[in-house]
Each structure stands twice: as C-alpha cells, then as structure tokens.
Amino acid sequence: MSVPEREPLRLMAVHAHPDDESSKGAAATARYAAEGVEVLVVTCTGGERGDILNPSFEVPEGHEFETIEGRRAVRRLEMAKAAEALGVRQQWLGFVDSGLPEGDPLPPLPEGCFALVPLEEAAEPLVRAVREFRPHVITTYDPSGGYPHPDHIKCHDVSFEAFAAAGDPDRYPGTGEPWEPLKLYYNHGFSMNRIRAVHEAVEGAGLESPFGDWVESRDAREIPERPVTTLVPVADWFPNRDAALTAHASQIDPAGFFFAVPRDLEVDVWPWDEYELAESRVPLPERAPGEYEADLFEGVRSEVPA
Ligand SMILES: [Zn+2]
Questions:
Q1: What's the gap in Å between 180 CA and the centre of ligand 1?
Q2: Could you report the per-residue pLDDT of 235-284, keeping only the tens digit for each?
Q3: At 221, is the pLDDT very low, low, confident or very high (cuts 50, 70, 90)?
C-alpha cells in the first residue's frame, strides 16, 4: 500500500501594490515557502501611480516611467525579482492603482481606479483566485488599511469579502468550486511594541532612530492600537525580505527608512513578523494576555487531510 502524500498547506497573502508584499509579512512568506508551504502573493493593482521614491533609481533600459503602461511594466519586472527573492508565486488581479490623494480638499480619485470599483466587481477576481488556489490561510490588512491609502482599504474589503464568500456555492457563480479558507489575518508590521523596542535599542546603540517622530506622533494622536495575536519567528528570512525590498528599486531607497535599523540589532530585538487573527473557522486554544500564537497554521495543520 502506498502512503498517500499529505496535502500541502497553502498561504495566500493579499496586497494592494507591488512592494507591499516585501514590507509586510515578507519574511514570514519566505519562511513558509522554505518550509514547503505553497505561498501565493496576490497583488490587487499594478502600482501604476507610485512615484519614484528612490533617488538612486535608474529606469531600466528600454523602459519609461512617465505613463501608466510604462510604470506597470517596470513594476512588473521589480515584482518578479521580489517574488524570486521570497521564493513565492505571485498573481496580479489587474486593477489600476488609485494613487494616494494629497491636498486640501483632497482631489477626486482617478476614473476606473481600484478604490472606485464596486465591491462585488472588485472582489470577484479574488474569489476566483481563492477557489483556484484553495488557501488554508489568507493574510491582508486591517479595516483601516493599516495606512490610509484607498487601495489598502479596498484590499481589506475585497479580502474580507472573499474570505466570507468563497466557500458559499450561492455567491460569485461561475468563478470555480467553492473553497472555504480556515483563517484570516491582518498584517501589523509597525505595532507600537515593535516601534518602541526597536527605537530604544537603536538609540541605546548610539544611533539615530528612524522612529523618533513616529513614537511621538503616535503617542500624541492616541491611535488605538489593534491587537497583535501572533508573532511568527522569521529572523533567518530577513535577508530574503531585504532582497525583495531592494528588488522594488523604483520604490525602496536602499539608504532609506526600511534599511535604517542595523540588521544584527533587529534580529536581537524584534525577530518576528506580527499579525492579528481576524477570523478563524478552526478551534484555537485560549491565550492569556501577553501570550502569542507563533504559527499562522496553528489549528489548521490537524484539519488538513493527510
Ligand atoms: Zn501599497
């Protein structure tokens, strides 16, 4: 009798723009992929309205960055390199970046952009992707988007909708066999616990902290902190995260914010990626305050047929 192969675990990380997968939960996706989990990054938009945020960026030969199409092509090249660095598969949903509106009053969003697409229409390709890939766990952003970009808020909305609807045979007909994911998480890369710990360690080492203003402004604004439930140990995969970040050369300055904390210090002070468990369809143990889950697949591993 042959031993049936265990069904692989599958993780879907839904993000708004190319580069978000490299700045939020990146090391965790690299770790799970290295451990044999099938990992699919889903990117809602092409990042067509991201400005050049890296002064040392040079537009690749044969490309231009002035038009929507030109930026889309450049950012696709960057995304392919980032996915390779993380060891994950990646899929585009095909929506167009809404841009980050600035000014007072705020200008209207550009016609046809992701944030303006009605929810059911915007969620449909993600429901289809969930029914095709059949993830056990999905990660996305919290309802505020984690950062007030209209595409990040929309990314939450479509992910929440897909998590709720993909298993229901009456919803989204024609998008494949129903599939019910078991857990939904929100990325939390910048909890105050992390910022304070890293800030103090950097200053303690006599260096300039990138988080100084941040600590003060967050304290002043008294933004209620969302609960972190889950700390996944990922220090061994920080080099993959860093390679993925630098792959997004138009967006990430290798001398900038994301590289301002010395890596040896980061490994000592904050070797985790942080998440908030938003929904679970599997039973989970009770935890006392200050106790964290360490695995996105906790409670899932025993549910997946061997
Ligand atoms: Zn983004």
A1: 27
A2: 999 999 999 999 999 999 999 989 989 999 999 999 999 999 999 999 99
A3: low
Residue 5 pLDDT grade (very low, low, confident, very high; cuts 50, 70, 90): low
Known binding residue 104? Answer is no
Quick one: 10-188+227-280 is in which CATH superfamily? Answer: LmbE-like (3.40.50.10320)
* Ligand 1 midpoint to CA 84 (Å): 19
Q: Where are the domains of the chain?
A: 10-188+227-280, 192-225
Q: How far is the CA of 262 from the centre of ligand 1 (A)?
A: 24
Residue pair 122/95 in contact (Cβ under 8 Å)? The answer is yes
Does residue 191 contact residue 224 with C-beta atoms inside 8 Å? no
Angle value at C-alpha 70, between 73 and 68, nearest 5 degrees: 110
Query: Are residues 6 and 18 in contact, defined by beta-carbon separation less than 8 angstroms?
Result: no
Spacing, Cα 203 to ligand 1 middle (Å): 29
Amino acid, res. 127? V
Q: Hey, what are 164's tokens?
A: 């709720």
Centre of ligand 1 from the C-alpha of residue 278, in Å:
20
Chain mean pLDDT for the chain: 94
- Cα(238) to centroid(ligand 1), Å: 20
Is 156 annotated to bind a ligand? Reply is: no
CB atoms within 10 A of CB 139: 27
**Neighbouring-strand partners of residue 137:** 11, 183
* Per-residue DSSP letter, 19: T
What was the pLDDT predicted at 147? 80
| Six-digit token string for 125 | 């390709």
